[in-house]
Amino acid sequence: MKYRFHSASKLHSRRLPVVWALSLPLLLALLPAGRLAGQESQFAAISQCQIAPVWSGHPVGFCLLTHGQRQFAAFYDDQRRMTVAARTLGRDDWQLVRLDEKVGWDSHNYVTMAVDAQENIHLSGNMHCVPLVYFRTETPLDITTFRRIDRMTGSAERRCTYPRFFEGPGGQLIFTYRDGGSGNGNQMYNVYDPATKTWRPLLAGPLTDGGGLINAYLNGPVLGPDGFFHLVWVWRDTPDCATNHDLSYARSRDLLHWQTSDGMPLVLPITLQTAPIVDPVPIGGGLINGNTHIGFDGHDRLVLSYHKFDPNGNTQIYNARRERAGWRIYTTSDWGYRWEFQGNGSIPFEIHIHPVRTEQTGNGRQLVQDYTHSRYGSGTWILDEDTLQIRGTLSRPPRYPAALRLVESDHPGVQVRWCQDSGEPGLAGVHYVLRWETLGTNRDRPHAGPPPAPSLLRVYAMKRQGN
After folding, report:
1. Residue 140 in 3-state DSSP?
2. In whole angstroms, how large is the CA radius of gyration of the chain?
3. Are 103 and 89 in contact (CB under 8 A)?
4. Looking at residue 380, which CATH number applies to its domain?
């Protein structure tokens, strides 16, 4: 059984008939998908339907799941209530269930879901250093049977953040989260038994431990082509994002026994003193959590992507590759710009980097890397396999049709938000995405003035152009 993972009391439930909205969605409905997209986008919209009005005052993660013939979405509605919607594919009527949770102004408080081996849905979210928020359905795939469960193991569940479900090496459902705050948290892991419907700790204690003084911000574990689960992280001393430092890495085959990149065993929990440090970036060195990524080159060699300040003080993208002699760090970008970040709360990112990957292009398989920069725009680099230097760029249209990229709201500062389907792939090359609109981040504080009117959450069926 493959789990499906998503970044998203007795309940109020109602049926919501689909309503085709005017303006942009009407344009989509009237124009053939090919004509709408032409050659301007990678994907064409072939159908759409409306789910519900949603909160637009600030961005917070929604999620979408397609599981067999059922489709689910988790989001915050126009009253900020945590809501789950469900439908059968091919139908336009959604069943809505509201959970007894409401989001404030914190952009950390996304919702995430998983389906277990018995097809019960697990949901967690709306957490930033608060007691565990966890719901589970009592009947498979039936959102009306969601019930709040106030504990998993009953230990280290009072200050939870960053919930994530993922599949373990034996197909187990794993749940991980940070216990504690920014600068003083530990990373915890639980494993689920579907037969008894109970959770137990995966490890004897936390995987990483900051000793109450610092915490690790992790990306992963990511299962690589070598059969290892790979984990990269930075350490942070305080809630100030400028205090990130020391890019670190570990790997495991079973999530129980961890080792360095050269196979030396690690004693758990991993601390700053015992962590295998790839790049000893100092505090204030331009390293930030949320922009560290795990990729692999064309020979399946591990590559860690991140950014820091170069010797001239500018922010550059670096790629660290594990080679025979150890880690080798390559400077990939050559930008003349410094992203100076500091302070607390959710901040707008001026740079987004993505992991390196191989991709089939017109010139065969090539090593590529995507990026977005507030000054230099967005693009895809073609990297030299040996030096990880830029030797060209891929010219490709935007992912989605121009009409969908236009903001419908007339409220200043509103932006389009997307959520990819992390469930099962659609038939015949069709995949689904959520679209809605919100204001930008404001360090988890209210924006000045009244919020925008609620946005319409819609799901679009997309198909790659030319397929």
Report:
1. coil
2. 22
3. no
4. 2.120.10
Q: Give me the half-sphere count of Cα atoms (radius 13 Å) on the Cβ side of residue 93.
A: 5
| 281-296: pLDDT as tens digits | 999 999 999 999 999 9
β-pairing verdict for 455-464 and 198-201: unpaired
Domain that holds residue 231: 5-464
Strand order in the sheet with 315-323: 293-296, 302-309, 315-323, 326-331
In this prediction the pTM is 0.90
- Strands across the sheet with 111-115, in order? 5-6, 111-115, 121-125, 134-137, 146-148
User: What type of residue is 34?
Assistant: G
Distance CA 192, CA 198 (A): 6
How many separate domains does the chain show?
Answer: 1
List, for residues 267-324, the tens digit of each pLDDT value.
999 999 999 999 999 999 999 999 999 999 999 999 999 999 999 999 999 999 999 9
**DSSP notation for 352-411:** EE---EEEEETTEEEEEEEEEETTTEEEEEEEPTTT--EEEEE----SS-HHHHS----S
Residue with tokens 């990149």: 261
Cβ(398)–Cβ(405) below 8 Å: yes
Q: What DSSP string describes 190-250?
A: EEEETTTTEEEESSSS-SEE-TTT-EEEEEEEEE-TTS-EEEEEEEESSSSGGGEEEEEEE
Q: Which residue, chain included where needed, has tokens 């961005």?
A: 59
In this prediction, residue 467 carries a pLDDT of 59
